[in-house]
Amino acid sequence: FANFVPISLVVTVDMVKYLQSKLVTGHPSLFSDISQTDCTVQSSNLIDELGKIDFIFSDKTGTLTRNNMIFKSAIVGTTSFGNTPNPGRLMRPHVDFGDHIFEANLGNPEIQEFLRALSICHDVTEQNGIFSGASPDEVSLVNFAAQYDHYYRSSGKTSGKLVVENGRQVLYEQLLSIEFNSTRKRMSVIV
User: Fold this and answer.
1) Which of 18, 52, 70, 164 has a Cα-to-Cα distance from 10 of 20 to 30 A?
2) Which residues are catalytic?
3) How far apart, in whole angstroms, are the C-alpha atoms of residue 24 and residue 38?
């Protein structure tokens, strides 16, 4: 004998999960005052799993930094930049960098290659000029590159990365992406 589930029950359960996800999304106690964002439900199928949680295990990643990464300095080649603050420059989010020597040498091919690498090698998504990603490190690096005219734009293609370099649009075809892992301690993108 087979178990039969009425279609009306399946529809009712799906509607309840959908409504629960809307309640979680708009709940005032889940609003972050720091980032000024609401809780986001990525999958309504997991709502009923919340009641089964007894323990939460977490490591210390992000505990001290509160997952708020700020780009302050860089080493390009053998030169360290970011040692001299530039209070007159308008900063992008997650960037607190100023160095008049870096800005004077923006035409240097080594610096251009550094900015190009930052604007290509990441898993960040862009929507209306705002970057978001799983790693706050990547978001700060992409914001830094964008501050110096290497804007990453979503190309709409899964295999390409559209970058506006110094006012010129360049589409890089992404051949392979090797994800970050703890053994290599790096991510790689082959374009």
Assistant:
1) 52
2) 59
3) 9
pLDDT means over runs of 10, the chain (191 residues): 80 91 87 82 81 67 64 86 67 79 87 87 80 81 86 68 79 80 80 79
100 contact partners, CB below 8 Å, separation of at least 6: 84, 86
Closest CA to 153 of 135, 144, 165: 165
Q: Of 164, 168, 132, which is closest to residue 145 (Cα–Cα)?
A: 164
Q: Where are the beta strands (DSSP E) in the chain?
A: 74-76, 79-81, 125-127, 130-132, 150-153, 160-165, 168-173, 176-181, 186-190
What number of other Cβ atoms are within 10 A of residue 13's Cβ?
12
Model confidence, pTM: 0.61
φ, ψ for residue 3, nearest 5 deg: -85, 130
